[in-house]
Amino acid sequence: MAAGRKASRSARRSAVTEPKLTPSLPAHDAAMIAPGSGWGLRNRMARIVQPDGRSVMLAVDHGYFLGPTSRLEVPRRTVEPLLPFIDSLMCTRGVLRTSVPAVSTTSVVLRVSGGPSIVGPNLANEHITTTMREALRLNCVGVGMSIFVGTAHESQTVRNLGELVNEAEDIGMPVLAITAVGKELEKRDARYLSLCCRLAAEIGAHMVKTYYCEDFEKVVEGCPAPIWVAGGPKLDEAEALELTYNSIQAGAVGVDMGRNIWQSEHPVAMVQAVRAVVHEDYTVKEAFAFFSELSGR
Ligand code: 5RP
Fold first, then answer.
1. Which residues line ligand 1 (CB under 6 A)?
2. Which domains does the chain have, with CATH numbers?
3. Looking at residue 36, what is its pLDDT?
C-alpha cells in the first residue's frame, strides 16, 4: 500500500518538475538549493534531504543544556537502535565521539552552539562552542545552532548565526538555524515563528528548524529556506504522528524530532512510523496502525 502511494506521489512530482531540471539532478537538489551554491554544499544537503525531497533527522542534542535527560541518560543505548531508520542524526561532538560507532554511515548534523544550562539564569545566552574545523574533522554534513528571537540575547545569537554562515559558506557546510524558545513554549504561534524562520533564512541559514503551530503553512510560506519541525515535549504517539503529518502537509521538508521518538516506550516502532509519514505519505491512522503492529501495542 505504502510503496504504491510513494510511487504515485513520486510520479506526480516528477511529471511536474522534470521539464525544468537538468536531467542529472534529483528534483530536490535543483528545487531547494540556491543557485550558485557549490557542489560540496549541495552534496551535503543531499545527504540530509532524500531524493523524494523529504528528511527524517533524529535530535539527540538535548544533553547540551538538560544534562542526562530521561531516556537519553546513556546516549549510545538510545541512538544505536534508531540509526537504521533515520536520514541524519543531530547531536553534539561529545555524543558523536562517545556514542556513535565510527563505522556508522548515517549523516550527522553537529550542534555547535551552547553555554547556558537549564538551571542557569538564561537559556538564550548561547555562544558558538564548536569550530567549523571540528565539524569537518568529524565528517559532518551540516552544523546546527539556536537563535533566540525576542530575548535579550536576540542580537548575539543572530550574530552567531551570521558568523557561522560566513564560515560555512567558505567550505560548503549547510547551516541549520533552530528557532529556540527555551522554557517559553507558549511563544509557539505562527506570527512569532514566521518572524524567527524568515529572519534565520535572511541571515543565510540553509535549513531552518522550528515548531509546529496553527496556521503552520504561513510559517512555511514566509520562509525561503526548507523547514524541519521539532517534536517538542512528549505527546501520545498518535498526537506526535498527527503533528508530523500536519507539518508535512503544510510544506515542511521533514522533522528533526527527539523526545517524541526516544521517550516513547517503543522508540524503534515510533521512528519507523514517523518515517512512514514523512517518506511514504502514510496518514495518521495508517501510521498509528503501523506503530501498533510494530510495537505489539
Ligand atoms: C533544543 C533542540 C532539540 O534538538 C529540539 O527541541 C528537538 O527535539 P524535540 O523533538 O525533543 O523537541 O534543538 O533546542
1. 59, 61-62, 146, 178, 180, 230-232, 256-260
2. 37-295 (3.20.20.70)
3. 60
